[in-house]
Amino acid sequence: MKVSILLNHFSFGLLLLFSSLVISSVGCLDNHKENLNLHVTQPHPGLPGFDWSSDPLEVSINETLLKSEMGMDTLDLVIEDLYTYLHTMNTGDSTDWKTHINHFPLHMFNDTSMLNKQFAQTKHWRENGFINRINKADIQFASNWIIEEKQMVAILGYNVDYYQDFLPNFEGNPAGMKFLLEDKFGRDNIQYNSYEEINELGDTILIRNWHANTYSTIFVLSPLDSLESLHFCFLPQGFNKADFSNKLMKSETMLGLLRQSREFKKSTTNEN
Q1: pTM of the predicted structure, to 2 decimals
Q2: pLDDT at 15
Q3: DSSP H/E element including 97
Q4: Residue 2: inside a domain, yes or no?
């Protein structure tokens, strides 16, 4: 089934967290949207083989490997929202910002001024040639829900096809991202690519990116007061490194769900 996922060291690294955490910024509560200061951004020049007018993102269920402890109807709804979350991260356009931030758990953390600063920082890096994009998320595991005071939380395990692109106008050193990506995806699961392509105008373009194709996880949160019309927010693997992470979910919830995902992955590895 198809329902056709960061920079100079401190700020560069902070953006890594917020590219997967916050450029997931601010959502779940529509009444906070009017507090966000949005600025129109110009479309970036794009990437060879990546059509921004028809984002090739695919969020799918691996029917062979899937182990789901939540109902399939609910999982389908989660995947629809996950597609929106990832698609609006891929485009990074300010016109998509309100939609994107609607999938960050503002019901737990609503410091919109800080999140606006992160959007401004993300906008800065995108305009200077740094882009995150996800081509595919292949869902293999879905936990049951853990109920907290204000929300219910689950975890998805999926194989992610992720790129961190450096456009020709990027002036920094992509090697500076190596440690952060190793920490996020594992040393053996990332690869750096650098090559030249000829565009439609006959110009030579330098293509540089980090690529990861590996198993990863993402947390799913839904405020309890939205049960009449389920709405899902997302937090990526590693969100706990943010200073405010303890406001987003209980540590025992996070650790318990991560344990379930690891046990699932271990079971599939042993079978192979």
Answers
A1: 0.79
A2: 47
A3: helix 97-101
A4: no
